[in-house]
Amino acid sequence: MYTDPIADYLTRVRNAIKAKHKVVEIPASKMKKRITEILFDKGYILSYKFIDQAPQGSIKIALKYHPVLKTPAIQSLERISRPGLRKYTNSESLPRVLNGLGIAIISTSKGLMSDKEARAQKIGGEVICYVY
After folding, report:
1. Which stretches of 2-128 are DSSP H helices?
2. How far apart are CA 1 and CA 108, in angstroms?
3. Whole-number Å distance between alpha carbons of 67 and 59
4. Which of 12, 41, 44 is nearest to 28 (CA)?
5. DSSP per residue over 29-56, as a string?
6. Is 7 helix (H, G, I), strand (E, B) or coil?
7. Which residues contact 1 (CB under 8 A, 6 or more apart)?
8. 95, 130 contact by CB (below 8 A)
9. Which tens digits make up the pLDDT trace of 66-124?
10. CA 121 to CA 101: how far, in whole Å?
11. Bridge partners of 112?
């Protein structure tokens, strides 16, 4: 039993990238599915598939690498808000990751979204993680 499923998700992806795996399988939840969709929309992963089994289901993520250099598209996944110390921010002080080259995933009242989308809608929330 783990207390932080989002940190577990990020760690599984991080470990799969370091081991140069093509696919990683992760237990599913609504939040993890939305994070996966955001990573796909922003071009950090190649594809994903939701496998709905009886109790929980899982997510299969195909990781993205440069075709020639074999470097991963995701250089860093960093958990920001955690169960012991939550980090909240308003719309004016949303973080910019690598001066706009990376993304921050924000949990808002309108669901999970990237920092750019939250800034455009002028809503703040909990900063889940940084991806670059």
Report:
1. 5-18, 30-41, 115-121
2. 27
3. 24
4. 12
5. -HHHHHHHHHHHHTTSEEEEEEE--SSS
6. helix
7. none
8. yes
9. 999 999 999 999 999 999 999 999 999 999 999 999 999 999 999 999 999 999 999 99
10. 20
11. 107
Two structure tokens written together for 51: 């496998």
Instruction: Check if the beta carbon of residue 67 is closer than 8 Å to that of residue 42.
Output: no
DSSP, collapsed to helix, strand or coil, labels residue 4 as coil
Q: Can you read off the two tokens belonging to residue 27?
A: 């237990």
Instruction: Tell me if 108 sits within 8 A of 51, measured CB to CB.
Output: no
Q: In angstroms, what CA-CA distances link 126 with 28, 43, 108, 115?
A: 21, 23, 7, 11
Counted residue by residue, the chain has a size of 132
